[in-house]
Amino acid sequence: MDIDNLILCPICGNIPVNERDDFLNELKFKAKYFKKGEWIAQQGDIVKALYILLKGSVKAEMISDAGTVLNIETINAPNPLAPAFLFAENNHFPVDVVALEDCEIIVISKESIMKQLACNEMFLQGFMKFNSNRAHFLSERLKFLSTKTIKGKLAKYILARTENMDFSLDMSQTALAEYFGVARPSLSRSLSEMIDDEIITLKGKNGKVLNFTKLRRLVTNG
Amino acid sequence: MDIDNLILCPICGNIPVNERDDFLNELKFKAKYFKKGEWIAQQGDIVKALYILLKGSVKAEMISDAGTVLNIETINAPNPLAPAFLFAENNHFPVDVVALEDCEIIVISKESIMKQLACNEMFLQGFMKFNSNRAHFLSERLKFLSTKTIKGKLAKYILARTENMDFSLDMSQTALAEYFGVARPSLSRSLSEMIDDEIITLKGKNGKVLNFTKLRRLVTNG
DNA sequence: TTACACTTGTAACAAATGTTACACTATTTT
DNA sequence: AAAATAGTGTAACATTTGTTACAAGTGTAA
Question: I need a labelling partner for A192 at 20 to 30 A (CA). Which of A17, A62, A121, B34 fits?
C-alpha cells in the first residue's frame, strides 16, 4: 500500500517530519480499491468517514434533477474526497465520484480525524486550509457558471490557461461541455465561430490566441 | 454591545454554558458598525479576521466579469461571514457584502480563533460543522444554478417552499431574477406562462400550486 | 394628496442555445 | 490490421432567453 503518499496529501502536508510516524500510527484506517470506471461514491451517500485518494484519479460530477451532467472537477492522488462534508449536518456526498483509473483509497473514521484535529495543530491547520480552499473553489465555480454565454465561458477558460499566446484545452470538448453545463454541439459551434472570427486557432486540444482584445471583450460581454 | 448574541452564533453553539464566560474572556475582538446600504466587504478584500454579524442582516452577491449580479444569499444575525475563507491560501472575500439594515459586526483575529480551535473542542466542532454546512450550501447552489431553464428553477424554488398547495416567493421578482442569474422580464414571462398553463396562481408574493404533476415535470425537464 | 422610487406585466424583436441527426476522424482495444 | 469506441464538425430547426421600451401598479415619504 502506498501509505507514504498519505503524508503528501494537502491536509497532512504541514506535519513535521519527526511527527509523521506517530501520526500514521495513531490513525485508524483501512484501504479500498476501485477499478477504472467504478463508482466510488454516489450523490446522496452518507459521508461517515474521510476518504483519501492515495493512487489514481477520479472525477466528481453532479447529476441535476433533469439528468444533465455537470462535471465539477477531476481529483488526482493524493487528495481527500469531500472532506468538507464529514462534519456537515447534511452529511451526504454532493457529487457522484467515478474512478478514472484504478484507484486506491484509504478510509479514516470520523472519530480518528477528530482526535487528530484536537491534538495535532499542524493537522488542524492543514485540514482547515484545505476546506477553506475547497470553499473558495466552489465559489469560483459558482462565479464561472454564472457567466451567461458559452463564448464568455470559453474566453475565461482559455485566458486562464494561456501563456505567450498558446493554450491547451485540458479536456475533450465533450468533457468541457459538461464542465460548462452546456450542450456539446453548442460548444463546438461557439469554438468554430471564434475561429472564424480569427480570435483563436485550434488544432486538437492546442490553440493560439490571435486577438486578445476580442477575447477579453467576450469575457466582459458574457 | 450585543455580545451575548455571539454565543448564539452557530459556530459557538456547542460551547457548554459553564465555559462560555471563559470563552468570551479569552477572545480578542473589536466591534464595527455599518449603516443600511453600506458595503461591509468587497469581492477581493483580504480576509484577515473572522467577521461575525451580531445584529442586522446583510446580503452577499457576486458581480461577474460581465457586470451581472448573482445574488448568493441573505445572512441574518447572529452568523459569521465567510469564515471558510479565513484559512484559505487565496484568502479573498468571494462576494460583495452589503448591509440590508444597520449592522453590528465583531472582528476576531485569526490568531485568537486558532487558539480557541486548538484548545476548545466544542468550538472546533462548531466551526468545522459550520464550514461543512457552507460547503454543502455552495454545492446546492451550484446544482441549482446548473438547472438550465427558468421554469425549471422556478419549479424547484416553488416546490421547496410549498406547504399544502400554498407558497410564498420570499423576495421580489427583481431579486429572484438576480438569485436565479436571469433577466427580470424573462422571469416574469416564465411566471406568466406557468399561470396561463394553470400550474400555479400568484397574487403578489403569495401563490398556490394547482398542478403538482406539471410542476414536478418542469423540474425534471429543466 | 402629490410626488417619487420601486416593482411588475407585456410586447416585439434579436440573439443564444438546445435538439437531433449524420458523416467523419481519432484513439483504443482486440 | 480490424473492429470497436470515443470524439468532432456541422446543418436545420425549435426553443428559450435576453434586450429594450413602455405602461401600469404598489407602496412610501414629503
Answer: A62
